[in-house]
Design brief:
Elements (H helix, E strand, L loop, with lengths): L1 H23 L5 H4 L8 H10 L4 E7 L4 H9 L4 H10 E7 L5 E3 L5 E3 H8 L7 E5 L5 E6 L5 H12 L8 H13 L1
Parallel strand pairs: 1-2
Antiparallel strand pairs: 1-5, 3-4, 5-6
């Protein structure tokens, strides 16, 4: 009887494991599928973005302890549709706002991640998504977590389609919501 219970337990465990694995197939690790690899030289990444026919560079300013950063990675940046869209149009890089690792900014100046975040980009809260054009000029900035993957995709479209040149992201979102509801 104990042997039968043991095999039933193994069978139940296998079923639960397969269901869990099937559920997790829809999401992918953002560090592998959303973010691009970098050596921390943003002046070089501009050249890479141009060579790759990208529209812009996205920098995800984050902190380890930030619950909203974790929420974005676990609910938005891990979505295949978000990953595909941003990989097609952007080079995307995470940056620790408390980091002491040296990087090179868009102008070719060497500094720490912390300096680049707090002094150059005035990041005070995380997450911050800063989008830079292919000259290293910041063209869009979003602070906090988005409400959904759809809203984050709208941020990408806002830049890719050039709407940032004529309206704020808040106005663009209102326009998208109105069009969606009819």
């Amino acid at each position: 009887m104990k042997l039968v219970k043991f095999f039933l337990f193994l069978l139940l465990f296998a079923i639960i494991s397969n269901v869990a694995a099937a559920t997790n197939e829809t999401v992918k690790d953002p560090y592998q599928y959303f973010f691009n690899e970098t050596w921390g030289d943003f002046s070089e990444e501009v050249t890479n973005a141009k060579d790759g026919n990208k529209k812009a560079i996205l920098v995800f300013f984050e902190m380890d302890e930030c619950p909203f950063c974790h929420w974005m990675k676990e609910n938005v940046l891990n979505q295949p549709s978000v990953q595909a869209y941003f990989r097609q149009h952007f080079l995307s890089f995470p940056l620790d706002i408390e980091g002491d690792i040296e990087i090179v900014d868009f102008a070719g100046q060497t500094m720490t991640q912390k300096h680049f975040a707090t002094k150059i980009n005035r990041v005070r809260a995380t997450p911050v998504f800063a989008i830079f054009d292919l000259n290293g000029k910041r063209i869009a900035r979003f602070t906090g977590r988005t409400s959904s993957a759809e809203e984050f995709l709208w941020l990408g479209e806002y830049v890719v389609d050039g709407h940032y040149e004529k309206m704020s992201f808040v106005k663009y979102k209102r326009m998208k919501k109105k069009a969606k509801t009819g």
